[in-house]
Design brief:
mainly alpha, Non-ribosomal Peptide Synthetase Peptidyl Carrier Protein, Chain A, 2 domains
């Protein structure tokens, strides 16, 4: 439960970082490249505003901003999860000497090896027993 709360807090803070990155770092050079047109202000006017009615428009520039935010967030989360999975696999590999194996993984690995040895002994004992009984008859 605590992990979930921490994830939500970090996600909220990260969203603000990405908003700032897109709004203050990425969009100004794009506006410069597009002759000073800010992406967030792009819109398709359906009905022009007058004194009696307000303008009706589709603000596709802001939608593009939100899509860029989304792409940055999803790519970052993808790479963070990929890194976490890689580190997790390395830490769970008992044969990898570079990473200190957690004690519980090391103990489980030892139990697995002992069970493998015990099964080999039992199979050998059964085969010896079977060969003795077939040799007698």
């Amino acid at each position: 439960m605590v992990d979930l709360a921490i994830g939500i807090l970090v996600g909220t803070a990260f969203n603000r970082v990405v908003d700032s990155l897109v709004g203050k770092v990425l969009m100004p050079p794009l506006a410069l490249l597009s002759n000073g047109v800010e992406l967030a202000n792009l819109k398709y006017v359906l009905r022009k505003g007058s004194e009696e009615t307000e303008e009706l428009a589709i603000g596709y520039g802001e939608f593009i901003n939100v899509c860029i935010d989304f792409l940055i967030i999803t790519l970052t989360i993808f790479f963070v999860i990929k890194l976490m999975n890689k580190l997790s696999r390395r830490s769970e590999d008992p044969k990898d000497d570079q990473v200190l194996t957690p004690k519980n993984i090391e103990l489980l690995s030892n139990i697995e090896n002992l069970l493998r040895d015990q099964n080999a002994l039992l199979k050998r004992a059964k085969s010896d027993e079977a060969s003795e009984s077939s040799g007698v008859g």
